[in-house]
Fold this sequence. Notes:
The protein is an alpha/beta fold. The protein contains 24 helices and 23 strands. It folds into 3 domains: 8-211, Rossmann fold (3-Layer(aba) Sandwich); 220-380, TPP-binding domain (Rossmann fold, 3-Layer(aba) Sandwich); 388-577, Rossmann fold, CATH 3.40.50.
Amino acid sequence: MKTSEQIIRLTTAQAIVRYFANQYIDINGQEMRLCGGGFGIFGHGNVTCLGEALNNYKAKLPLYRGQNEQSMGFAATAYAKQHLRRRFMFCTASAGPGTTNLLTSAALAHANRLPMLMLCGDTFLTRLPDPVLQQLEHFDNPTLGVNDAFKAVTRYWDRITHPAQVIQSLPNALATLIDPADCGPAFIGLPQDVQGWVYDFPLSFFTKKVHRIRRISPDKIEIQEAAELLKSAKHPMIIAGGGVQYSGAVAELTSFAEQFNIPVVETIAGRANMLDTHPLNIGPIGVTGSNSANAIAEQADIILAVGTRLQDFTTGSWTAFAPSARFVSVNAARHDAGKHQSLPVVGDAKISLSLLQGECGDYKAPESWTKLAQEERKNWNDYVKLNVKPDNGPNSYAQAIGTINALCDPRDRIVAAAGGLPAEVAANWRTLSTGTVDIEFGFSCMGYEIAGGWGARIAQAESEPASDTIVFVGDGSYLLMNSDIYSSVLSQKKLIIITLDNGGFAVINKLQNNTGNQSFNNLLSDCPTIQEPFAVDFEAHAASMGAVAETVETQKELGEAFARAKASDKTYVICMKVDAYEGWTKEGHTWWEVGTPHISDDPNVAKAHNDWESSREKQRKGV
């Protein structure tokens, strides 16, 4: 029989908070709380019970007040990315629209394999007051609610219907959040009545526990088979993905490439795996890549893909490689390791690369191949240098990127997402320090930029307070979600935000034009329902939320304003107009599959369709 010293009576909400407050992680010998805190907006579905519990732990689990639930989720994912998935934040939202606002950010976390915990209000389990405010009724299924929508966009989903269930549910959710192969968002639905119900919990459930990220050792035979294939390569190439950074395998990747003299290309998620100046860094690959990386991809015979899910922007919708090319895929996730008939090495990148290095013996890539790759990179560097030149035509994304790149600190973190900026940053940014670039392109989600910058800044303040978080955002994304300028001011988490205004959704207008279509409903000037387009005063808008803001007209003025932003201790927004048509990076793109009309009365559309389809013959058939 248990004594009173062995149990503690708590509400469901109190137990959840107490549990997460006592979970720690060992990072390079240093213990810190695994959950860095949370983002919250309270409503009737979470304020009375979960809010009460969180208030008692506000020193251990700081709660940042959000302005929008979706942006809270973006901030949480950016926080986790900055911490290389070793720490996470929770988001709490009320029942109904507060919770459903998190669906998009959950999908973003799912696509990018990032940990985020959602503690969300739910309808009353007893159903005695049904239907309640904000409840959606399904006439033939009373158990179905809006929270069930999260099943499609989470790695772990549960609804707590009795306090005792948290003893089983919370460790399972936590295991998902820190699992390198199955990492992603976890959702826990909390019915409003159950949150306040009490239970006698065992005290042992709340004792301090120190976690470590699991490192999966690959199968010995898989390593041997991968080594044999690599040693047969005449034109080897390494694709370095985001998993390299999450594994902490940057040094192992560099050592492997250097020992065997193998050219390395980077995915969007893997940008900043290697310094720009490293002689084996051949550039970014794919649709938003470089001529150099794509040129050697076409000729590579054996491709070692490390920590990448090989999405279509990396593979050019699987047209970037020779039909006969063979893949070896090193990945902690079995699902990713076996894609497109790869020879899989299922394991941690850090361990796998070291073992593979030992098995490859005295193999060296032919010097002529490596020199060819380096010459291609030299040519690409010359193109980028011209592309970002301040007086190279009207103001462009590339020019602004080049201006900031030349002036920023090596450890400053760059954040961009969706629209045209991911391609421009991926192609033109020259890495000054590893692990400093966050281009959210897994879900390509507009609105991530400023919110993600805020989350990254919170994480940076915990580890690298001297560096800045620099956000590149277009006018479209700024207008979609900007309220975390206010959040950053309130929480004193300084951002430098470069707002580049091209008068609408210019990159989609570019795609529209490139497929033979006329400009329609993307640029403000081409929207038939807009009678009198006018320019938003982004400077005044940002200033109204407490930021320091100014507008510049030239790259020289941008550089001068950036120096002032660096010196400031407040969030600083710099606004500049860029051209919607000129200045796009025109080189470095592989083919990308988009749906085009197979028939059209417009001859330009018909011709564009035929031109687009002409490259399909290069598309690899795989699974």
